[in-house]
Design goal:
about 150 residues; alpha/beta; Glutaredoxin; five-stranded mixed sheet; two-stranded antiparallel ribbon
Length: about 150
């Protein structure tokens, strides 16, 4: 997916099995962020950054949805442990991850493997992608600040 592309309508099911659709956020900008794994240091820092400034993000017209290939049960524990106020899509079959083009080769500790590339899409009120933060562009500890531009 690239800037100007239309995001998919069906995003997936959240940690409670509820369908999440792009149209659920009509009239708002959506921060759709993809992360590798629940309860890892970088992913926790990113989620907590978005949590800590969630009200400010909402006041600026944004909603937040996280996505990883972890199970709904894993997401529930992650949300509870860190008091995350936004939904987490359990994309266990990687449907959305692959549709958005964020599954790919990664290098970790000198070893290549396939996985989710940390990526955030800012989707406009009309459903088109306005901005993309990918890989090392994502500053996990201050990701909300990046999005807000402050």
């Amino acid at each position: 997916m690239n800037i100007g592309d239309k995001a998919p309508e069906v995003l997936g099911k959240d940690e409670n099995g509820k369908d999440i659709r792009l149209s659920d956020y009509k009239g708002r900008r959506l921060v759709l962020y993809f992360y590798p794994k629940d309860n890892t240091s970088g992913c926790t820092a990113e989620a907590c950054s978005l949590r800590d400034r969630y009200e400010e993000l909402q006041a600026s017209g944004y909603e937040v949805v996280g996505v990883s290939k972890d199970s709904a049960a894993s997401h529930q524990k992650f949300k509870e442990k860190h008091a995350l106020p936004f939904p987490l899509i359990a994309d266990v079959d990687k449907t959305l991850i692959e549709a958005m083009g964020v599954w790919g080769e990664k290098m970790m500790c000198g070893k290549k493997s396939m996985g989710t590339i940390r990526t955030t899409f800012i989707i406009g009120e009309d459903g088109t992608i306005e901005q993309i933060y990918a890989g090392k562009q994502v500053k996990t500890k201050e990701h909300a600040t990046q999005i807000l531009g402050k």
